[in-house]
């Protein structure tokens, strides 16, 4: 068996649905027995450790709907809705700010959506100022401050302003440059907007520029997507995410406007993935895992080499120790040993804050077993390697005993060349890297009960 990343036979055999493990346990396990009181207690308890903070701010609005979209969003042309939303975000920032010691620095900040660039310039300034009143933002550019932008919505002056406001990383939504694909998904995005945003981001000194692409969209095939890839590679972003389109029209209504007969079949999708991996690696990008590629000098690739990469709700991160405070409708936080989620509907979000309540509606307090399994899954997903002796020592268990059933479940995977065990080290081999979700699923204690809720692995 050759040790290469793309192994079609194995991909076919292991093709199944599985979580993306931005959290373990996944959000499916959150329950409503965990609410505001539990969140407050957990948040205040973290002040004893005083870890730095990571702030996630969710801006749900989009001007138009992209048919493929599985994100939490509200589609509206009415820009005035942003003001009413920010009124409540300010209230939430004040309530959250009271819970955390003021000296804890914000090492990481992320504006996601929806589309954060739905906000006007004045509203962006207002949001940063409101945040800075409640939390200690870093003013020396050492934080990892990122946002998602839609190139159709930003001018050069927007990127200039965002850089002035302290953002130093950008993620640019592209999906595909092909006009037919763009039309079929209702996201017509002229090249001058896409490449203009990339050029300006660099000129403004954003440190890491990431682009989002997607495969499995209508009318895509290997040749067409290769043309998109070549043009993206020529523009040299620091990171490239190539997401597998998760087609779940049952859950996401706008996806019903994508016709099944226009979608590439499984064989074509595999060909596109193969082409993508070949082209990106030939161009020098490193496969980080879970759809993400980075240039070898990018800090994600460096963190992976140095064993300090982490994963949370924003995907890969280099800040392992932060407590993650989520602001805005649908936001998911991770403080201490808990996860918590804000209400999804804007009406509910507004009602909670207008009544002076934090809008947490569900969450989870992790058990010992949850935390242990999370550590194992995080190591595998971030570093493709697990030091079982270290796990035993850190968690006061005997790994081989505790995970006897999991070791047995890994055996067929080892026989197939996905993983190998050398003494205390469990290593994911090249073909296993694309199937990392399957490997992590072995350590997931909740999986049987969550069938059908997750997207396909490939
Ligand atoms: C929350 S969206 C925000 C980006 C921003 N609103 C924009 O579109 O430019 C983040 C990314 O999720 C990905 N995404 C959205 N729907 C998806 C789906 N159904 N399957 C896979 N990836 C998806 C897209 O690549 C998108 O750029
Ligand atoms: S991909 Fe971005 S712009 Fe399009 S609907 Fe989703 S969140 Fe909105």
Describe the structure.
The protein has 458 residues and is of the alpha/beta class. It is 38% helix and 20% strand. It has helices spanning 8-14, 36-45, 81-99, 121-134, 156-164, 179-184, 191-203, 222-235, 266-282, 299-306, 346-354, 368-383, 388-395, 399-402, 404-415, 430-433, 436-441; strands at 53-59, 61-62, 74-75, 105-113, 136-137, 144-149, 169-175, 208-215, 239-244, 286-289, 292-294, 310-312, 315-317, 323-327, 332-335, 338-342, 360-365, 385-387, 419-422, 425-428. Helix 3 packs parallel to helix 4. It is globular, with a radius of gyration of 22 Å. The chain binds S-adenosylmethionine and iron/sulfur cluster (SF4).
Strand segment count: 20
Tell me the number of helical segments per DSSP (H or I, 4 or more residues long): 17
Share of β-strand residues: 15-25%
Largest sheet: 10 strands, mixed
Bound molecules: S-adenosylmethionine, iron/sulfur cluster
Q: From the alpha carbons, calculate the radius of gyration and give it in angstroms.
A: 22 Å
Class from secondary-structure proportions: alpha/beta
Helix content: 25-40%
Low-confidence sequence ranges = none
Euclidean distance between termini CA atoms: 21 Å
Oligomeric state as shown:
single chain
Basic shape: globular
> What's the pLDDT, averaged over the residues?
95
């Amino acid at each position: 068996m050759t040790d290469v990343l793309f192994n079609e036979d194995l991909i076919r055999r292991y093709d199944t649905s599985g979580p993306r493990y931005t959290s373990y346990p996944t959000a499916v396990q959150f329950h409503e027995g965990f609410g505001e009181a539990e969140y407050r207690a957990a948040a205040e308890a973290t002040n004893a450790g005083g870890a730095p903070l990571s702030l996630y701010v969710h801006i749900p609005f989009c001007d138009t709907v992209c048919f493929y979209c599985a994100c939490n969003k509200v589609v509206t042309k009415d820009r005035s809705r942003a003001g009413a939303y920010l009124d409540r975000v300010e209230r939430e920032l004040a309530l959250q700010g009271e819970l955390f010691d003021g000296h804890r620095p914000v090492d990481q900040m992320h504006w996601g959506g929806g589309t954060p660039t739905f906000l006007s310039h004045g509203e962006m300034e207002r949001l940063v100022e409101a945040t800075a009143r409640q939390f200690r933002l870093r003013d020396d550019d050492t934080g990892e401050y990122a946002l998602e932008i839609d190139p159709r919505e930003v001018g050069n002056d927007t990127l200039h302003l965002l850089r002035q406001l302290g953002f130093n990383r950008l993620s640019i939504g592209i999906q595909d440059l092909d006009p037919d694909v763009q039309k079929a998904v209702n996201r017509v995005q002229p090249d001058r907007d896409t490449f203009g945003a990339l050029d300006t981001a660099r000129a403004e000194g954003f440190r890491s520029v990431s682009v989002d692409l997607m495969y499995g969209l209508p009318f895509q095939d290997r040749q067409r997507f290769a043309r998109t890839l070549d043009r993206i590679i020529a523009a040299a972003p620091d990171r490239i995410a190539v997401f597998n389109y998760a087609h779940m029209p049952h859950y996401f209504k706008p996806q019903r406007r994508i016709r099944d007969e226009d979608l590439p079949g499984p064989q074509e999708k595999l060909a596109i993935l193969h082409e993508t991996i070949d082209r990106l690696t030939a161009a020098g990008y490193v496969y980080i895992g879970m759809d993400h590629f980075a240039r070898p000098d990018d800090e994600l690739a460096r963190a992976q080499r140095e064993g300090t990469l982490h994963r949370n709700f924003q995907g890969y991160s280099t800040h392992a120790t932060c407590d993650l405070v989520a602001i805005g409708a649908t936001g998911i936080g991770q403080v201490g040993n808990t996860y918590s989620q804000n209400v999804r509907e804007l009406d509910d979000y507004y009602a909670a804050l207008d009544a002076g309540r934090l809008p947490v509606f569900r969450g989870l307090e992790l058990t010992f077993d949850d935390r242990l399994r999370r550590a194992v899954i995080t190591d595998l997903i971030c570093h493709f390697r697990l030091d079982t002796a270290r796990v035993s020592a850190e968690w006061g268990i005997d790994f081989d005993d505790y995970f006897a059933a999991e070791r047995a479940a890994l055996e067929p995977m080892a026989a197939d060349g996905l993983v190998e065990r050398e003494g205390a080290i469990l290593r994911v081999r090249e073909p296993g890297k694309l199937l990392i979700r399957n490997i992590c699923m072995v350590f997931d204690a909740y999986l049987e009960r969550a069938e059908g809720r997750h997207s396909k692995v490939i």
